[in-house]
Amino acid sequence: MRIRKYDFNYSRRSFIEKVATGAGAGVLAPLWSTIANSADDISKSYPDELLSIEMYTKGKIKPGDVITAANVDTVKDLLEPLMFEQVKNHGRRLNIVASNRDVTKMFNATYLKKTLENKGRAKVGDDGNVWTDGDKTKPWIGGLPFPDATDGFQTQANLTLNWGRHDYSQYTAPFYSLSPDGEVGYRHEIVWCELNTTARTDNTVFQGHTDKLRFQSVFFTAPNDTKGSSFLSIWYYDQRKFPDLYGYFPAFKRVRQFPTNQRFEPLVPGVTFFLSDAWAAGDPTLTWGNYKIVKRGPMLGAISGHHNWTGGKHPTWDQATHGGKKGKTFYDTWMELIPEAIVFSAEPSGYPRAPVGKKEVYVDVRNMMFPSQVTYDRRGQIWKQFEAGSGQLKNDKADVLGADGKPDWTWLYCHTHDIQSGRMTRFRQEKSIPSGYKSKYATEGEDVYNKFLTPSAMARLGT
After folding, report:
1. Which of 135, 154, 222, 339 has the fewest CB atoms below 10 angstroms from its CB?
2. What is the pLDDT of residues 153-162, one digit of tens each?
C-alpha cells in the first residue's frame, strides 16, 4: 500500500516529524517566509483542512456552530484538557468562527514590523540569556526574538521578553472570583502596569536600565478592604535572577520586600491568579528548566479579537457569562481553528518548594501568543488552567488605534480555573474602571515610571 504524500493525514505526520526533528512552523511552506513575503495571507503554508474547521471535522462543525457537551467529543483533540472538561461537565459553550489567515490582525503593527526586521538576530549566549547578534552588551532590540521557534526555550522567550508587546501597557480590569457553588465570592478592581526597559520597539533603553527587563506593578482600587494594596516587580534582564518584589498594604502603612520566590500564591485572598501565571511567563525563563516541545498540531483558541472584543457594543468592554452552577463561571468566547500550535512543557527548577510540578503552554505559531496554559501539581495531577483571549481592537462598531494609526492589539479576557478546588477567577480588560484609570498601550506623555513603578509610588498609591 502506498501512502499519498498530501492525503488528509499528511499534516498529522508532518507535525509528528517536526517534534522529533525540531523543525519550524508551516506544513506546505515555511510559515515565517510566507509571512515576510505576504503577511496578509498564510494560506500557502497550510493545507485547507487546517484552515477550515468544517473541512477538519469533515462537515460536523462549521463557523457559526456552538460547541457544547453534546458535540464536544468531535473536537476533543483540538482542546486542552481543562477546556474539554469545562464544556463536557460544567456547561461551557464555545462559539466557532472562521480561521484568521491575515497575520497582520494578530499583532500590533509596530511589533510585527520589528519582528520581521530583526528576524535571525537573537542568539542564546552561554549564560542562557537572549542577546542581539550574540553580543552580551546588547539586550534584545525588539519584536519576537524567535518567531520561528524550534524548541521550548525559544517559545517561552517569545512570551517573556515583552509580555504586552508594547513598550508600555496599562490594563484596567475587574476580577471576579467564584466559589465552587458558582457564585461570585469576591470582586476586585485592579490596574496593571508594565514598562519594558529593554526589548523595546523604539530602539531605546529606558533611562539607561540595560540590566533590567521591565518594571511591572499591580494595584487594587476596590473593594475597600483591599483598596490601596499594591505590588511591584522589578525584573532583571539576566533571566537567572529573581525579580525584586515589593508590596504595600494600607493596614501596615509601609512598603515591604517579599521573598522573590513567593510566586505561586494568590495576590489577595480568594483570587486564583498567581504572579507566576502572567502571560504564561510570570517567572524569569531560567528559573524554569527542562523545556521541551511535546506536541505540534491544530487547536481551538480565542485569537479572533473582533469577535471577543466588545468595544462599541458595551461601554466598558464587558462580556456576558454562562455555565457553571449559576451561569456566571465562563465568559462568552469565540474560538477559531488554529492551524498549528506548539505545546511545550517546563518544570520550576528554581523553586524547590513550588506547588507546581510542571506546566504545559499552548502557543499559536502565527503570532507566538498563548491561548492557554495548564499547570500540574507535584503529584502530576492537573491543577489549574490559565486561558487567555487576545486580538486586534477592531470590529464593525469601533476600533482603538495605536501611535502608528493602525488598530492596536492586546489581551482581552482570562480564565484562571483551579479545577481541584472548583474555584475560578475570571477577568476582562476593560476600557476604564470607576476609579478613573483607563487601559492604554503607550505612556501618552505621562511619567508612568514615577507614578506607578517605584517603591515610593506603591506607598503613594496606597494612601
Report:
1. 135
2. 999 999 999 9
